């Protein structure tokens, strides 16, 4: 596996593959890779002859009080993992390569609508940072397919919207959430958890499953959401939200609406903020 850090080397490698008629799959990441990322790589591999991954901790998607500085940077380990999982090319740019005018002065991509709620409401500016860097990475790599994890469900909707509205010639493919045996969704942020917090963390997935069961049992959505917040607090979390929404646009479902729903939770455990979701698949 080759590692490149600048746009010219990236484009030269991809041009060579394209001249041989090979399709390119892309998995953008912020590094500190785990089996969740490698499952996305396998999906890309199954759809394209060549696979590119990026590792870039994107400053513009972190708020001023968030974990940009301490976000784990493990490039050597990531390179070894990507090579072992069939990645052909790693793009690992620095901040100046992605933001030549500086992160504060960059052209910004803003996706309206779906970014106004949930993560967008709790992390102002976060999705502008995500949409901007994803647009830039897609323009640099110009893949045929790009794979995004469903664990960041709202991010997936944001990426689909920008690809549609800006007519980017790429197919966005969702990757199912990978979980630890106790149900905790795999995430680079899990390593921030102390032993006691790690033992409590699966309560998020358990609460999502409970929300689905409670709605299926006929309890009103608002009652289920309020009870889910209580369950999380009881388990030691400080929840930001625990809601049931339409999966396709995160709008509030009408009373009695049961198809195409999803439960989403964001909650803090000590200093660590975790998110997870559970699509109901038609209820
Ligand atoms: O999901 C992530 O790791 C990041 O938000 C992404 C898509 C790589 C953009 O920085």
Automatic annotation (TrEMBL):
One of its GO terms (biological process) is pantothenate biosynthetic process. ATP binds at residues 30-37, 149-152, 186-189. Beta-alanine binds at residue 61. GO terms for cellular component: cytosol. Pathway: Cofactor biosynthesis; (R)-pantothenate biosynthesis; (R)-pantothenate from (R)-pantoate and beta-alanine: step 1/1. It is an enzyme of class 6 (ligase). GO terms for molecular function: ATP binding; pantoate-beta-alanine ligase activity. (R)-pantoate binds at residues 61, 155. InterPro entries: Pantoate_ligase, Pantoate_ligase_C, Rossmann-like_a/b/a_fold. SUPFAM superfamilies: Nucleotidylyl transferase. It is found in: Cytoplasm. The active site is at residue 37. PANTHER family: CYTIDYLATE KINASE/PANTOATE-BETA-ALANINE LIGASE (PTHR21299), PANTOATE--BETA-ALANINE LIGASE (PTHR21299:SF1). Belongs to the pantothenate synthetase family. The reaction proceeds by a bi uni uni bi ping pong mechanism. Homodimer. Catalyzes the condensation of pantoate with beta-alanine in an ATP-dependent reaction via a pantoyl-adenylate intermediate. This is Pantothenate synthetase. It comes from Mizugakiibacter sediminis. The gene is panC.
């Amino acid at each position: 596996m080759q590692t490149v850090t600048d746009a010219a080397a990236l484009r030269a490698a991809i041009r060579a593959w394209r001249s041989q008629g090979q399709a390119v799959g892309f998995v953008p990441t912020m590094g500190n890779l785990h089996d969740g990322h490698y499952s996305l790589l396998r999906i890309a591999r199954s759809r394209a002859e060549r696979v590119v991954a990026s590792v870039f901790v994107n400053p513009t998607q972190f708020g001023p009080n968030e974990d940009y500085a301490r976000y784990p940077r493990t490039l050597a380990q990531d390179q070894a993992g990507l090579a072992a999982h069939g990645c052909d090319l790693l793009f690992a740019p620095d901040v100046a390569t992605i933001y030549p005018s500086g992160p504060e002065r960059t052209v910004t991509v803003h996706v309206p609508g779906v970014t106004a709620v949930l993560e967008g409401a709790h992390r102002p500016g976060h999705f502008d940072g995500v949409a901007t860097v994803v647009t830039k990475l897609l323009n640099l790599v110009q893949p045929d397919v790009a794979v995004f994890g469903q664990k960041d469900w709202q991010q997936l909707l944001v990426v689909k919207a920008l690809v549609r509205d800006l007519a980017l010639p790429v197919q966005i493919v969702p990757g199912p959430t990978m979980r630890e045996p106790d149900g905790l969704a795999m995430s680079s942020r899990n390593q921030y958890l102390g032993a006691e917090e790690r033992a409590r963390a699966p309560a998020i997935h358990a609460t999502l499953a409970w929300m689905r069961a409670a709605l299926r049992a006929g309890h009103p959505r608002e009652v289920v959401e309020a009870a889910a917040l209580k369950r999380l607090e009881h388990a030691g979390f400080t929840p930001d939200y625990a809601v049931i929404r339409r999966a396709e646009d995160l709008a509030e479902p009408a009373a009695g609406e049961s198809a195409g729903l999803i439960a989403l939770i964001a909650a803090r455990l000590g200093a660590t903020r975790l998110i997870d979701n559970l699509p109901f698949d038609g209820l």
